[in-house]
Amino acid sequence: MAIALGFTIIFGMLRLVNFAHGAFYTVGAYVGLVIAERIGLVPGLIAAPIAVAVLAIVLDRFLLRFFYDKEPTSQILVTFGVAIVLEESLRLIFGGTTRQYPVPAWLSGSMNLGFAQYPTYRLLFGIAIVLLVVAVWVFIERTDYGLIVRAGIRDRTMVQLLGGNVRLASTVIFALGAAIAGLVGAAASPIYSVDPNTGFTFLVPSFVVVVIGGLGSFWGAVVGGLLVGELQSLTTLVAPALSDVIIYVAMALVLLVRPSGLFGESEVIRG
Amino acid sequence: MMRELRFYGLLVLGLVLFPFALHPIGGYAGLATQILLVGIATMGFNLLLGYAGLLSYGQAMFYGVGSYVALLTVSKFFPQFPNMWLAIVLAVLFVSVLAFLIGALTVRLYGIYFALLTLAFAQMFYFIVFQWRDLTQGDDGLQGITAPPLWVFTNIDLTTTFPSLNLGPFGNLSDVHYWYAFAAIVSLLVIAFMRVLIRSQFGEVLGAIRENEQRSTFIGFNPQRYKLAAFTIAGALSGLSGALRGLYETSTAPDSLTIETSGNFVIYTIVGGVKTILGPMVGTAIIMYLQNVISAKTDAWRLIEGILFVAVIVFLPGGILGSFKRKRARKIFSEALSTETP
Q: CB–CB of B307 and A85 under 8 A?
């Protein structure tokens, strides 16, 4: 869900379809892993989003900005290419094998929640995601900066005439979306192992989440993530063979019945 | 008329020389067969991306399903009919119907929604093939299914090689199997078909829809019907390609339905050149050849492919053939201008 959130921020705010988003997650995971192994988990968690944000800024300035005004098809193509380049660079550096960073000792226990035992690290991970979601929402909806960005999507020229720096704002948003992916990647590496393809395998289900929730809708991504998670675990209980298929069936149904998703604005359909 | 003759003459010449031209540059004759078979699907894909302006991220579903239907026809459905035509025809028919049904649902959507919906359907079929072990043998795929002979007045075994004849640096005539001849004939027919289709009214309308769908509706065309027809033809060609590739390799696996496979068709087409008939075939040849040569030497092949792909998008938006075409168009244009000036 958190990946879907970063993806939807970039798409919703910039109207940029980012196939490289999964690769940002993987880059974050590897940066986190390397620093965590040398220094510790916390510095890793700090370094990963910064590194990924820097990468995103470089990509945005030198490559992607030429594609902002192009049709979505060429955005998909160029970010798809970027994703291949990033993933394959990781494979060359770190090899194709799966790696996992062990949960540090002080976080490895489990907590008694009164009704259930739950591993401490996963619990903290969940809480952190919720905090992150709230923080991003506040940033976009409640700060002046978020206002410039949102206005910039509606009418770029007007915002520039009024003195808002739309280009800078769009770079910031792109970097923010990427940083979230990087942070989540680093934080998740003690839970899910990581290999160069991890991000891409997460990206495809996150498309499902975003489409079901409504492309570009903030709360849509949140609700879509929860729905998809529930749907998958319920199907696993009833008919395990279908649990992988079911989310794509759900996505196809949503696209056919209501292409703008549950929370999406209908204007985006003709994108 | 002369231009047509010259085009097909050069094409036939190119197809005859192709497997031998690969020999001195590190390829082999079998690679030529694979390239042509995959290229058929890529050309179909370009009907969508280049001519109709639809980016499908699910083309592998038709390719993969085609290969499964063809091989299952041979091994399970009709083992008593030892003829390759049956496998090919059944696979193409099945995939055409499938493509028509999925197209009917998907062509109403635009841009990224279309791309994601085709992706969703492809994923569905991937997991169905993956999980339906009784029929598809899941992860293992279908292995060692020898293709029956192809009946053309007499039964022909396509794995037969041509007679031995030393061609010096270009290898030996016996490096080439009948399979290559068959693949070349099918490719030639598909190229001719695409050429006629693109130049017909259908092709013109498709281009008009790509450039401005609303306006083409106002003139009185129904865009959905044209797009559905293009989607079905593209699917059928993918099915044909998958069926032939499966029969050639005598095996297939769920890999043939993955996003990577769908993405490969995108890469081949963009590198070779959208909006050109031969571009997708050229792109398929270039990438599959480079993959064959480079991946033998270094692990970095996918990285190089990715960089090449991004470079083509940024610097050669028309692809390799497209940039030639534009240069020629500019030359013709400037010549026309210079003759008009008194």
A: yes
CA distance, residue A106 to nearest chain B CA (Å): 39
Q: What angle do CA B181, B182, B186 make, to 5 degrees?
A: 120
Give the A window 195-224 contacts with B, CB below 8 Å: 200, 204, 207-208, 211, 215
Residues in chain A: 271
Smallest CA–CA distance from B120 into chain A, residue: A248
A85 shares contact with chain B (CB less than 8 Å):
yes
Question: Is B128–A269 a contact, with Cβ atoms under 8 angstroms apart?
Answer: no
A-B CB pairs within 8 A amount to 110
pLDDT digits over B112-161, tens only?
Answer: 888 888 988 998 999 999 888 888 888 888 888 888 888 777 778 888 88
Q: What angle do CA B45, B48, B51 make, to 5 degrees?
A: 120
pLDDT, tens only, A162-201: 777 777 777 887 888 888 888 888 888 777 778 888 877 7
- Complex ipTM, two decimals? 0.79
Average pLDDT score over chain B: 88
Instruction: Say whether B154 sits in a helix, a strand or coil.
Output: strand
pLDDT of residue B90: 95
Domains identified in chain B, total number: 1
B271 CA to chain A: closest CA distance, Å?
11
How many whole angstroms separate alpha carbon A53 and alpha carbon A107?
27
Instruction: Check: CB of residue A196 under 8 Å from CB of residue A88.
Output: yes
Least Cα distance to A3 among A251, A255, A267, A222 occurs for A222
CATH of the domain at B234: 1.10.3470
